[in-house]
Amino acid sequence: MMHLSEPLRQYADEQCSAREAQRQAEFIAFGPIVFQVSRLMVKWGILELLRDEALTSDEIAQRVGISPYAAKCLLEASLTIGSVLVEPETGRYSISKTGWFLLNDPATRVNLDFNHDVNYLGMYDLEAALREGRPAGLRRLGDWPTVYEGLSRLPEDARRSWFAFDHFYSDSSFDDALLLVFANRPRTLMDVGGNTGRWAMQCVAHDKEVEVTIVDLPQQLELMRQQTSGKEGADRIRGHAANLLDEACLLPADRHWDAIWMSQFLDCFSEEQITSILRRAARVMDNDSRLYIMETLWDRQRFEPAAFCLTQVSLYFTAIANGNSKMYHSDDLIALIEKAGLEVEEIVDGLGQGHSIIKVKRS
């Protein structure tokens, strides 16, 4: 039986009439145009203007500094997209509920920038990526085997949007996660895939005795050192360079680990690679160690739009990031944990922007 949270049970039944389904199909067919029109409505400040007052297309053209033709094209398309409304008697446009979310919802704004700056061009190569198991669209950003080797060298807009996307979803869960991870006051914590050290800094600020080791690629550790340099508690953070795609690369075993932390990390790997990484984690754990895996599991979401976003983000991993990973269903991740010789002790849902923490111990 496939696990689905209660709001996602709608996926088991038809939700649309035939006419609604036809409209949805056309919306999909014109998806790239819908996206770019909506992005420009935000970027050029048109939705912001319409939030405050109803305006004609000529008034909008004058205020935004675009031609009457450009204004009419964007407004008429947005009308049928559903982000604006029109008064037939006056021809004045105003913002709709959908337009309000495009303009004001933080998650939507982060997703909009991420999809334009990181994903948009590369998605043209999605078919090749799926067939060949490689990030065929990454060439639009740079020449690296995976996006992770190139994070520090991405084009500026792509780099800014990538980190904004990554931090938005992880940072919202940190407060809840700290309470869970530090319930037993770990003295040693290994942060696997620690990126720029944001979680590590949260840990050393939360507990004045904990020592954190970040395991990541050398170039990521350099970014981490730049970000944490001179900050209080940074002296209790050290780096351990490792490329965990190399199965011969082991996790550090020079001390007992009270806690091992993997946040938004395992979704960067294929199922085979995850099993290998978890087996290496099991090798450095004892009966008192706990592994905390924080992921946005698409099947455990409280709200349906979150599940929609996560299943779409899976294709970013396919076309851009690495060609073989995704946002996982909890059943699949649990099976990999057990295959690695570990056991799920507890799952806590509903942290921040839809995160879950899987607490794991040795079998």
TrEMBL record:
Residues 22-92 form the BVU-1015-like N-terminal dimerisation-like domain. The lineage of its organism: Bacteria, Pseudomonadati, Bacteroidota, Bacteroidia, Bacteroidales. Coiled coil: none annotated. This is Uncharacterized protein. Residues 185-341 form the O-methyltransferase C-terminal domain. It comes from the Bacteria. One of its GO terms (biological process) is methylation. Keywords: Methyltransferase, S-adenosyl-L-methionine, Transferase. It comes from Segatella maculosa OT 289.
